[in-house]
């Protein structure tokens, strides 16, 4: 229940719970930094009910009524350092979706598309060419991805220094991610004005 309480989890929910993963992924895949945002928030049902850590819109037997002031949905326009543009849609209230993250990146010669509900498939399309679907399972399956992540982190900790090119998110990555989330929050709370990521 802590994640629905601003005093414990902060003023953002969709932005940080879903958006932070999307932001990390787009930065990793493109090598680009988001430099400014224009965002709007949807806050639909302020009074909710929580039972066993799950939030409900209607009264459930044995549930507790709470007030939720954080974002249920986010729509944001993005500008990247290279001049590229993007858009982001996040929702904590979309029926039939559970932690859904998708991404489509279009360049001058190619487009790639991926979504978390079918994580082993990557779709690519080339200019003047067809569309290709590639199936590529995680190295040892999704659970083993976490083991590999922690193994690399602890290897660097044991060495006393990060590797020259770490394959895991660094503190700098976390800082940049938080800065983008803060810019989204600021923009959404100031009439969607374009806000620089600091």
From TrEMBL:
Stated family: Belongs to the Gfo/Idh/MocA family.
Top-level taxonomic group: Bacteria
InterPro entries: Gfo/Idh/MocA-like_OxRdtase_C
Domain Gfo/Idh/MocA-like oxidoreductase C-terminal per the UniProt entry, residue ranges: 2-192
Protein name: Gfo/Idh/MocA-like oxidoreductase C-terminal domain-containing protein
